[in-house]
Amino acid sequence: MKAHLTRRYMFSASHRLHNAEMSQEQNQATYGKCNNPYGHGHNYALEVTVSGPVDETTGMVCNLTDLDGFVERKILEHFDKQNLNVLPEFEREVPTTENLCTVIYDILQRGFSHAHLEKVRMEETMMNSFEYAGDGEIRH
């Protein structure tokens, strides 16, 4: 029997949406108020969905302690209270939430081996959320 488990985590980070290859006018037209030179912050809600067979002994897809510990060490400690623009992951990428979603998915995909990673979903605001399932498509 296969089941899905989704855990929700919160963290805060700031960013400025700006592409150095575009003119200031293009950046302003593309990113609007999110191109503020001083940046702006978000309280992100991250949802991680994993799947797998339900273990007959524990009755779980995976041990929540394993998932929570991995997310704490590899995601929250790295991104919480950070300016995303200065992190190595965004040296060549605009730190949009779409790109942040794929970066987090890749970290989980490479390092969390206790269950199959299905998708990552991020809420940037009450009005914006993004999903990535490793298939090259971001869902808004």
- Low-pLDDT residue intervals, each spanning 5 or more residues: none
What's the mean pLDDT score? 95
Number of structural domains: 1
User: Span between N and C termini?
Assistant: 30 Å
Helical residue percent? 25-40%
- Oligomer state of the chains in this structure: single chain
- For this structure, the CATH topology is Tetrahydropterin Synthase, Chain A
- Class, according to the CATH hierarchy? Alpha Beta
Question: Per DSSP, what share of the residues sits in E-state strands of 2 or more residues?
Answer: 25-35%
Structural class category: alpha+beta
Counting H and I runs of at least 4 residues, what is the number of helices? Answer: 3
Characterize the structure shown.
This protein is of the alpha+beta class and about 140 residues long. The chain has a single domain (about 10-140), classed as Tetrahydropterin Synthase, Chain A (2-Layer Sandwich). It is about 30% helix and about 30% strand. It is built from three helices and six strands. The chain has a six-stranded mixed beta sheet with strand order 3-1-2-4-5-6. Helix 2 (about 65-80) packs across helix 3.
Structure summary:
This protein has three helices and six strands; from the N terminus they run βαβαβαβββ. It has 140 residues and is of the alpha+beta class.
Record keyword descriptors for this entry.
3 helices, Tetrahydropterin Synthase, Chain A, 6 strands, alpha+beta, 140 residues
Write the layout of secondary structure elements.
Layout: E1 2-15, H1 24-31, E2 40-53, H2 64-79, E3 82-83, H3 97-111, E4 116-123, E5 129-132, E6 138-139
Parallel strand pairs: 1-3
Antiparallel strand pairs: 1-2, 2-4, 4-5, 5-6
Helix pairs in contact: 2-3
